[in-house]
C-alpha cells in the first residue's frame, strides 16, 4: 500500500508514490503541521528480472516496428511525462518514485537473445532497443546489459534501431559504426527541449540538451545514421521550440526527425499535473487546457492514430509546423529501411564452424 504524498526531491521527476489504480485500499497523508518531511535523496535500488524471453512483439499501427527489447523495467531518468510509468503498477509498485528508483534489470538478456535468434522459425526484422524505457539509463554504465545485447546483434548482423536520450550510447560506437557500414543500425536521439532549465526539471537525470546535440554530432561523424525524436511535444511548454530545435539538430548532423504529442495515460496524468503545479504553477491550467484541445476535451485518448498525434485544429497546426520545419532543414533524407538480408543464424552446439 502506497501513499500519495507530494514531496519533490532533487534529481527525481515524480513528487511521490502516487497510488496505483490496482490498489484496493488507498491511503492519503495529510500534513497537520506537526511533522516536516525531509526531502532526502531517494536511493536507486536494482532488482533482477529473470525473464524467459527477451524479444517483445506488438501489432500497433502507431509505431514503425513490431519487435523490441527493453533491458530495464523502470527508468532512472525520471521524466515526469513518461508514458511507460504505469507499467510499474503491474509489479505492485507505484508509477511515481518507484518507477524511477526501483529498477528491474535483465542480466540474462544476451544469452536469451542468442537462443531466440537461433530458433528455426525465427525471421529477422528490425529490433527496437529501448522503445519503452531507455536502454542507456545511468545504471547501464555499470551493468552493461545493453552493450551485451548489441554484441550479439553485431555478431550475427542483425538490424537494430536505438532510441535514447543518453550520451552513453557513444560508448558503443565501436559496435555501431561497423553495423552502420552494413545498413544494420540507426540511432534516434530524443531531444525534448533546448532550454537547460526546463530540461533539468522535466528530465532530471537525462543528458543536458546541448550534450544530446553533441551526441548527434559524434554519431554522425562516426558514420552512424542518426535521427531526432522530439518527444513529447508539450503544448504551451516546449511547442514553441519546434523550428529552432529541428534547426539545431540538423546542424549537428541529424538526417531525420519525428515527434510525439504528450501522452498522459492512467497514473501519468496526475503525476504530470503535480509536476506542473510544482514547477510551472502559473502555466499549469493553460497547459492542461491545451492538452484537452488535443484530446477532444479529455486529458488522454488511447485510440490508434490519435494517441501519438492528437486531433483537432491545434494538433493539425503542430503537424503542419513540424512538417514545414523538417522540410526546411532537409530532414528525412535517408530511408529508415535497414538490411535484414545479412542476418546470420547463431550456430548450435555441435555445429561445424565455417572455414571463413
Describe this structure in words.
31% of the residues lie in helices and 12% in strands. It has 356 residues and is an alpha/beta fold. It has a single domain, classed as Aldolase class I (TIM Barrel, Alpha-Beta Barrel), CATH 3.20.20. The chain has a seven-stranded mixed sheet with strand order 2-3-6-7-8-9-10. Helix 5 links the parallel strand 7 and strand 8. Helix 2 packs parallel to helix 4. About 1% of the residues have low confidence.
The name of the CATH topology is TIM Barrel
Q: Major sheet: size, sense and barrel closure?
A: 7 strands, mixed
User: What's the SSE pattern?
Assistant: EEEEHEHEHHEHEHHEHEHHH
**Broad structural category:** alpha/beta
Low-confidence stretches: 34-38
Number of distinct helices = 11
CATH homologous superfamily classification: Aldolase class I
CATH first level: Alpha Beta
Task: Describe the global form.
Answer: globular
Give the strand order, joined by hyphens, for the main sheet.
Answer: 2-3-6-7-8-9-10
Measured as a percent range, the helix fraction is 25-40%
How many separate structural domains? Answer: 1
- Could you give the count of β-strands? 10
Average pLDDT across residues?
90
Summarize the structure.
With 356 residues, the chain is α/β, with parallel strands linked by helices. It has helices at residues 97-101, 109-117, 140-143, 145-155, 173-181, 196-202, 209-221, 242-252, 267-279, 284-294, 313-328, and strands spanning 45-48, 56-57, 67-69, 72-73, 102-105, 127-129, 160-164, 185-190, 226-233, 256-261.
Amino acid at each position: 500500500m502506497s501513499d500519495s504524498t507530494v514531496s519533490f526531491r532533487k534529481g527525481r521527476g515524480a513528487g511521490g508514490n502516487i497510488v496505483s489504480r490496482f490498489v484496493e485500499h488507498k491511503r492519503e497523508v495529510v500534513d497537520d503541521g506537526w511533522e516536516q518531511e525531509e526531502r532526502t535523496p531517494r536511493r536507486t535500488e536494482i532488482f533482477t528480472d529473470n525473464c524467459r524471453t527477451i524479444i517483445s512483439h506488438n501489432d500497433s499501427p502507431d509505431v514503425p516496428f513490431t519487435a523490441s527489447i527493453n533491458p530495464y523495467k523502470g527508468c532512472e531518468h525520471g521524466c515526469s511525462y513518461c508514458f511507460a510509468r504505469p507499467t510499474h503498477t503491474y509489479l505492485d509498485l507505484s508509477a511515481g518514485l518507484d518507477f524511477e528508483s526501483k529498477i528491474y534489470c535483465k542480466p540474462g538478456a544476451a544469452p536469451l537473445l542468442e537462443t531466440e535468434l537461433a530458433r528455426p522459425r525465427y525471421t529477422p526484422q528490425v529490433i527496437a532497443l529501448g522503445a519503452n524505457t531507455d536502454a542507456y539509463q545511468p545504471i547501464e554504465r555499470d551493468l552493461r546489459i545493453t552493450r551485451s545485447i548489441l554484441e550479439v546483434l553485431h555478431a550475427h548482423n542483425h538490424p537494430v534501431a536505438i532510441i535514447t536520450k543518453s550520451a552513453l550510447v557513444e560508448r558503443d560506437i565501436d559496435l555501431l559504426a561497423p553495423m552502420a557500414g552494413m545498413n544494420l543500425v540507426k540511432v534516434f536521439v530524443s531531444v525534448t527541449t533546448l532550454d537547460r532549465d526546463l530540461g533539468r526539471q522535466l528530465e532530471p537525470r537525462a543528458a543536458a540538451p546541448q550534450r544530446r546535440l553533441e551526441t548527434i554530432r559524434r554519431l554522425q561523424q562516426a558514420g552512424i545514421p542518426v535521427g531526432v525524436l522530439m518527444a513529447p511535444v508539450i503544448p504551451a511548454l516546449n511547442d514553441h521550440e519546434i523550428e529552432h530545435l529541428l534547426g539545431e539538430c540538423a546542424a549537428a548532423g541529424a538526417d531525420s526527425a519525428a515527434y510525439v504529442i504528450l501522452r498522459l495515460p492512467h497514473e501519468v496524468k496526475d503525476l504530470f499535473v503535480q509536476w506542473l503545479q510544482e514547477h510551472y504553477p502559473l502555466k499549469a491550467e493553460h497547459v492542461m487546457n491545451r492538452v484537452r484541445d488535443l484530446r477532444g476535451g479529455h486529458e488522454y485518448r488511447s485510440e490508434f492514430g490519435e494517441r501519438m498525434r492528437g486531433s483537432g485544429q491545434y494538433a493539425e497546426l503542430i503537424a503542419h509546423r513540424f512538417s514545414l520545419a523538417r522540410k526546411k532543414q532537409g530532414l528525412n533524407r535517408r530511408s529508415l529501411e535497414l538490411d535484414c538480408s545479412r542476418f546470420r543464424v547463431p550456430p548450435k552446439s555441435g555445429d561445424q564452424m565455417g572455414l571463413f
